[in-house]
Specification:
By secondary structure, the chain is of the alpha/beta class. Among the domains are: about 30 residues; about 160 residues, Spore Coat Polysaccharide Biosynthesis Protein SpsA, Chain A (Alpha-Beta Complex), CATH 3.90.550.10. It is about 35% helix and about 10% strand. It has an 8-stranded mixed sheet. A 3-stranded antiparallel sheet has the order 6-12-13. Strands 8-9 form a two-stranded antiparallel ribbon. Helix 4 packs parallel to helix 5, helix 7 runs parallel beside helix 14 and helix 9 packs across helix 12. The longest helix has 26 residues. The chain is globular, with a radius of gyration of 26 Å. The termini are far apart. The structure holds guanosine-5'-triphosphate and magnesium ion. The site of guanosine-5'-triphosphate (GTP) has 13 residues, from strand 2 and helix 7. One of its GO terms (biological process) is cell wall mannoprotein biosynthetic process.
């Protein structure tokens, strides 16, 4: 046999041996490590790795420490396949157990995002997980007007310690209602473009504001939850959150919580207050006694001062948003057309509702949640708090007591004492 043939035979024998070894390994393997989490959710280890279900929900390891002595609340994750649901991506990460003991609230994080937001929401998630959720493992719902792509789902599922759920927004919640005059809406956008009003010429921004005002809480993925915490891409959290804000809301009968408040850009809402006043006249039953009208009006309701809670951070009650008062209010505003004929934002809409339909004490300022969304910072005022919660923010950046913030007013109209040292953070 020539030498070349000998070499070929040897190569063939080695290749055959290698192939048999690989096949043996594949057939005797117990499957990827990530499926170990199934043990804790009742699937025995000696079963074959499950094929990924055609559902929207992914789950990390069930927190073992908490599970031993606590009730994690009802599980609203049993979502079924519907036209608004996509597919899941495998969850290849296991997380350490959720160390916080005690009952969880029935609550979820909620994020509206585009696929292009993947890496910015990834940053936000790390902040929320590192400072809070790794200890609690709350679920996280992502909504989009387009289907989420695999990268978005893979990256977000990798980072969230609770279950992740992905939903598509129904068309009627992200489009022009038929009573909107398209020519008039287009003229407004052009006018706002010329006047350089931020997002003034954007159609998608208007759909976003309308959706966040009136529809996110109607999405079927949120149907079984009681509280939500809204998180946007590119935000930061500066302090440890050791006490569960969702549980705080529940136990203290709070309906709406904020971290930053400020004045609205009046050009975007010229008729929002007049429309709200018409609503108040037609639906006086929804205006509660002991409300926060003074936060939003300096003259007993004649005019709106522009104060609103910055809705890119919100911890709120879904039952409040799903109440007849709120739903009727949104319907009324939507009919008036200001989401398209002006550029009404969801922040003043939520805030006016919270100020008029809720009692003062149902609102809450989350002072200990250090927070940043470009360009404003909320940093706890007192040195003791910043030490206790290991805050990394510079107190000089705290926006609360500066001229463009409404938090000072919030304290005054609620008869609350401002925290020690606020005077030094006014400029
Ligand atoms: N799916 C989807 N999400 C959007 C769209 N526009 C905005 N969003 C999301 O809606 C939220 C608010 O949008 P932003 O662009 O952050 O609006 P903003 O906070 O007023 O403006 P910025 O100061 O630029 O952050 C964010 O969570 C965005 O990811 C869109 O067209 N589609
Ligand atoms: Mg934003």
């Amino acid at each position: 046999m020539p030498a070349a043939a000998n070499v070929r035979t040897l190569r063939f024998v080695l290749l055959a041996f290698f192939s048999v070894a690989v096949l043996y390994k594949v057939f005797t393997s117990t499957g990827p490590a990530s499926y170990a989490s199934d043990i804790t959710s009742g699937i025995s280890k000696d079963k074959a790795p499950p094929t990924l279900p055609k559902t929207e929900v992914t789950e990390h390891n069930v927190p073992q420490v908490a599970a031993a002595d606590t009730d994690l609340g009802t599980d609203p994750s049993t979502s079924t396949s519907t036209p608004n649901l996509g597919t899941i991506t495998p969850n290849d990460k296991s997380f350490p157990p959720a160390i916080a003991s005690g009952k969880r609230a029935n609550a979820t994080f909620i994020t509206l995002a585009r696929n292009t937001d993947t890496w910015e929401i990834a940053k936000s998630i790390r902040h929320v997980e590192d400072r809070f959720n790794r200890k609690f493992n709350y679920d996280w719902i992502f909504l989009n007007d387009q289907p989420f792509d695999d990268t978005f789902k893979q990256i977000t599922t990798r980072l969230v310690s609770g279950k992740t759920k992905y939903g598509i927004i129904p068309k009627e919640h992200w489009s022009f209602p038929d009573w909107i005059d398209q020519d008039k809406a287009a003229r407004v956008r052009e006018d706002m473009r010329q006047r350089k009003i931020i997002y003034g010429d954007s159609i998608s921004y208007r759909h976003m504001c309308r959706f966040e005002s009136g529809f996110f809480f109607e999405h079927e993925l949120l149907a079984d939850y009681e509280y939500y915490w809204r998180v946007e891409p590119s935000i930061k959290l500066f302090c440890d959150i050791d006490e569960d804000p969702f549980k705080f809301m529940k136990e203290n009968n709070k309906k709406y919580g904020f971290a930053i408040s400020l004045y609205e850009y009046k050009e975007t809402i010229p008729t929002l207050w007049d429309t709200t006043k018409q609503f108040m006249t037609q639906f006086p039953q929804h205006i509660v006694e002991g409300n926060n009208l003074k936060f939003v009006s300096d003259d007993g309701g004649k005019t709106y001062n522009g104060c609103h809670f910055w809705s890119n951070f919100e911890i709120g009650s879904l039952d409040f948003l799903r109440s007849p008062a709120y739903r009727e209010y949104f319907k009324f505003l939507d009919k008036a057309g200001g989401f398209f004929y002006e550029r009404w934002g969801d922040a003043p809409v939520h805030s006016l509702a919270a100020a008029l339909f809720l009692k003062k004490e149902e609102l809450h300022f989350f002072n200990n949640i250090g927070y940043w969304h470009v360009p404003f910072t909320h940093c706890p005022t007192s040195e003791e708090d910043r030490e206790k919660y290991k805050c990394s923010c510079n107190p000089k950046d705290n926006f609360d007591w500066k001229g463009y913030s409404c938090t000072s007013r919030y304290f005054e109209v609620n008869g609350k004492d401002k925290p020690k040292g606020y005077e030094y953070q006014m400029n």
